[in-house]
Amino acid sequence: MDKELDVFRRELVDVQGVPLFWSIAEEWSQVESFEARPDDLLIATYPKSGTTWISEILDLIYNNGDVEKCKQNAIYKRVPFMELIIPGLDNGVEDLKKKQSPRLVKTHLPVQLLPSSFWKNNCKMVYVARNAKDVAVSYYYFYQMAKLHPEPGTWEEFLDKFMTGKVAFGAWYDHVKGWWEKRNDYRILYLFYEDMKEDPKREIQKLLKFLDKDLPEETVDKILYYSSFDVMKQNPFTNYTTVAGVRMDHSISPFMRKGILGDWKNHFTVAQYERFEKEYDKKMKGSTLSFRSEI
């Protein structure tokens, strides 16, 4: 048990001003020197923005809708989390080295921390952004169940950490803006979680076009079905129930919790909402990025 305590609930450590898990900070040189391949597809998101959803969609696209192929392994094995390194438990860099091309690569890194080999190789990238209030709520529940994070404290305390960027992977505002600004110079498809909820088929078509891939209508419909929240929530290969309980406690909160829009309304008090909106306007001032917090 002592070993577990060594690994879990430790404070975050800054890497170039961005708070990351202590173990990533310790092994940062491995991450920084990661060798991307020209045919890698990078899936980049701020945490709790639909990462597993977009990963499953893309893996289904890569396997031409072959569901059985996608069920050969858990999503975190099929789409390794590049920078996640925990001594004796995980090493995304090593997992990716063993993978055959073309690889799907997951990251939560803000744009300025991405290994330079991705830019050098002009890799295609898919970024998914989700409105800040829903992210904050989802992240709060995730902090409670995923024990690599420090203790979240109360909702009020966590919201304060979120607004000041003192959470894993830093400030949401900087993250979404950083990737948004890069999209003009590199091959980045920038998607919104809210658009995916509103019309998932339309967004899958965007992905196919971006990947220069053509799939028959029935395959697209199949991908649509198998990547739906209800199906993924029941699928042990996507719902993270295969992760050891010491690492993720699904009894506190399931990994796939609600997957809806506007859950923030059930959590924010009027005072919190007003404070959040004021801060939001200040942080997002001058950006052409705009979000919907309901449809």
TrEMBL record:
<dbReference type="GO" id="GO:0004062">
    <property type="term" value="F:aryl sulfotransferase activity"/>
</dbReference>
<dbReference type="GO" id="GO:0005737">
    <property type="term" value="C:cytoplasm"/>
</dbReference>
<dbReference type="InterPro" id="IPR027417">
    <property type="entry name" value="P-loop_NTPase"/>
</dbReference>
<dbReference type="InterPro" id="IPR000863">
    <property type="entry name" value="Sulfotransferase_dom"/>
</dbReference>
<keyword id="KW-0963">Cytoplasm</keyword>
<feature type="domain" description="Sulfotransferase">
    <location>
        <begin position="38"/>
        <end position="287"/>
    </location>
</feature>
<dbReference type="GO" id="GO:0000103">
    <property type="term" value="P:sulfate assimilation"/>
</dbReference>
<comment type="similarity">
    <text>Belongs to the sulfotransferase 1 family.</text>
</comment>
<dbReference type="GO" id="GO:0051923">
    <property type="term" value="P:sulfation"/>
</dbReference>
<protein>
    <recommendedName>
        <fullName>Sulfotransferase</fullName>
        <ecNumber>2.8.2.-</ecNumber>
    </recommendedName>
</protein>
<keyword id="KW-0808">Transferase</keyword>
<dbReference type="Pfam" id="PF00685">
    <property type="entry name" value="Sulfotransfer_1"/>
</dbReference>
